[in-house]
């Protein structure tokens, strides 16, 4: 049982990485899809993309809900993240909760921590101490995790490293119907709310060519052709919140909200001490639920 729970935790880590993961005169010309209002909103999103490209670090909270094809139970997660974006990206993710169908997933009630440094993924969970002679952390290479969930996590990790807020906002600049919704307060900060849609092909065109094929495959697995988004921009032209959601006819339902809590604040992400790290037994990274 403990081995199955730990294997499930490895798969959960894969899911987290897979996730982890818009923006004035009257008449028809002001409607989303054309006219002066769309031009102005598109320019505002481009300004936000340019400003975000200058940041060195970011902190935030992520709430995501995913319902896979053929299932009725949604998997929901809430996590806190801190990322150093330059010069070498590194991430720390604290998963506060992970539920399926409204019930806490086994092994997740006490939360889980993840650290991504180089090509190593470190995870901390109370269950690991019972499997690694008292060591609270386990280390998985991207190859280990890939064998557990049937994905190429070297590619996925590279995507994660490159999928900083700069790239995310840049993809939203491809929207043809972005429009301003109005002024709203987010976390006590006055923001401008933008809304729009963007097709997968438009998003892919904004990516470096080396990333397009693997990202396209990910979208194909999700059965997604387009994404709807909401973007809240603060007075510094930085994102305060982004919501991305799949359309109603997508085979995979996904709704992810990222609320940014700090830009260019000190972020230190380091691997845990070697004395506290055990290696995940290979049996647990082979994804065999009945083992």
TrEMBL record:
Domain of life assignment: Bacteria
First and last residue of the signal peptide: none
InterPro entries the record matches: DUF6612 (IPR046720), LolA/LolB/LppX (IPR029046)
Designated name of the protein: DUF6612 family protein
Species this chain originates from: Actinomadura gamaensis
């Amino acid at each position: 049982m403990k081995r199955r729970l730990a294997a499930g935790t490895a798969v959960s880590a894969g899911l987290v990485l897979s996730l982890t993961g818009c923006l004035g005169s009257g008449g028809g010309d002001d409607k989303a899809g054309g006219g002066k209002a769309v031009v102005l909103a598109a320019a505002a999103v481009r300004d936000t993309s340019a400003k975000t490209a200058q940041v060195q670090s970011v902190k935030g909270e992520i709430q995501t809900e995913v319902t896979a094809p053929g299932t009725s139970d949604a998997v929901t997660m809430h996590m806190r993240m801190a990322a150093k974006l330059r010069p070498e990206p590194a991430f720390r993710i604290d998963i506060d909760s992970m539920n399926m169908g409204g019930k806490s997933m086994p092994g997740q009630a006490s939360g889980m921590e993840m650290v991504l440094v180089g090509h190593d993924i470190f995870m901390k969970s109370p269950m690991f101490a019972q499997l690694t002679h008292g060591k609270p952390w386990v280390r998985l290479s991207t190859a280990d995790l890939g064998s557990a969930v049937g994905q190429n996590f070297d590619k996925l990790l590279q995507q994660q490293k490159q999928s900083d807020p700069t790239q995310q906002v840049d993809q939203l600049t491809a929207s043809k119907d972005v429009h301003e919704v109005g002024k709203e307060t987010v976390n006590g900060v006055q923001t401008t709310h933008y809304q729009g849609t963007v097709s997968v092909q438009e998003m892919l065109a904004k990516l470096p060519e080396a990333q397009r094929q693997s990202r396209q495959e990910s979208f194909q697995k999700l059965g997604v052709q387009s994404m709807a988004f909401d973007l809240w921009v603060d007075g510094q032209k930085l994102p305060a919140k982004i919501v991305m959601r799949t359309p109603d006819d997508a085979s995979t339902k996904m709704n992810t909200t990222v609320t940014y809590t700090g830009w260019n604040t000190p972020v230190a992400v380091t691997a845990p001490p070697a004395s506290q790290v055990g290696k995940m037994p290979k049996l647990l990274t082979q994804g065999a639920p009945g083992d």
